Predict the structure.
Amino acid sequence: MPLPAPLRSWLEICPAEVLEGIALATVCENQPGPPADIASLLRVSKSIFFTISMENNPGLYAKIFSIKFDDQAAVRRLGETCRYTRNRANELAKRFRSLKRFKLMECRQFCASPTARDDLWLAYLLFLEHDQHNYQQLVSYAAVDEFANSFIINGGPFHDGVEGNGGWKIDSEINALAAWIFWFTDKDRVANETGVAHTRVLTAFAHTFVGSFKYASTHAPITSFHLPPNITPLPLPPSPALPLAARPSSRPTYLQHFGLYISITPPLLTPAALLSCAIRLETEYAETGDDLVEQKQPTTKFAEWGQDGGSERHEHDWTRLLTCYSPWTQPMIRRGCVFTPGMVSGTWVGRMFEISRDEYDALLSPGHFATAPTPPLLCVYPQPMQFDVREYHAHDDSQKIGYSDLSTQDSAGDGVLMAWWPRGVVMNETERKLYFSSNNPLWSSTYDIFDPVSAARRALDNEYRRTGPYTHGVYDIIITATTGAHLDHKRYYGRVRDWDGLILLVSVEPLVATPTRIFSGYIHGNMNLVGRWRETATPVDQPGWEGVWSMTKIE
């Protein structure tokens, strides 16, 4: 007598499409973390496991990926391979393995694991790609904000290695990634911060304030405008005091992201540290001037992680990482844009932070140069700043004025004192035009002021959309700025470096033609312009009196 056929549950006889729909129904969009209920479904029987396992049904997990994570930014930046079903399924598994380590492992145990570097990179890139879901997975599930706390201010790995480095914090890839994660999650932290925690953050990042000669703040030295340079290798200031990290590296780091192997440069530690310090110092030393907006509140803006998109705010930060590891190397992935024409035009408010000149000079003395100061945070004096910036464009390659930097005739690199403008140039600014002329050799050029209406037309015109290093038919960007009557009456002029979007401004005292300070920095998150300033009396190949500055555009 034949044995009866084994009974099968109704789930086992469901069509695969129905079973897949049931599996998707267990995935809650608003519940952070991995789809735990699917694990229970997989254990019901072998036939169900076969039907909905990742190996046999990657399409199911690709759909789950779209519920749990954002991918619009990755597709925009890396291409259509990010939409491939298998890549999305594999990325889902990789991400939750990584986030689980953030969630469950103690900070030092995490950093000692062989996956620490890749995990930190993944968290950083998820912030840059956030549109709707990533932030919830990072903070609500993985608690990367608590990890960053432990790493930076609670005696974590950020403080390791200082004994062998003269007391200075180590400017490393791991520390830089952790500092940016700290800044990305700083809004709630600052709102609930105690006085002790406030001081700990300032103390942890203070060396980036007082030791500007130790930490890179740009992806290439400010003494170079044209990159790649006209000569090889890139001429560099000879002083060993200048940070080696400021020099372009021919050895990028490599990552696997959405199944693609990409070469990328680590983010700079300095801007993240400066943003976290600036927001706290602005709170602590809020100015009382009547003419500056929001002086009772910090002007630095926190990174925002709403549900209405936002990854496009980080497009320039992403492109810098992807393309600025070496001037001589062609990026593996298509190049985006490091600066959008018009983004610096307008009114900016913020503060410049000065350190006592006597204390800084003492720090540069031979007996103290190699050793970090104790306590690390010297007297920092905030000075209010307001720039009314006008942006001028060259819309044809033949309109571009020349440049002056280390790769041209000035071997000392003092072209930076002229905002990379060519020697002997005469500028005349009118309401809507910027005229340049020179008698030796004889030439002239005209730049047009940024006009949003004309820029919008150019953006829609296929003829101009991809022309020029800044796209939209823009071949060069010159900027001028003035300060309000309630401030120092100085004028500023400068330029934008097309290789990495670095903004350089030189201040000129009233009735004096000699520049007095150099301001350099990047716009991060399309919101904050942050960087360093330095005086010009000291030769550019030597450390001089320096400080930091942070500004935000008034909408």
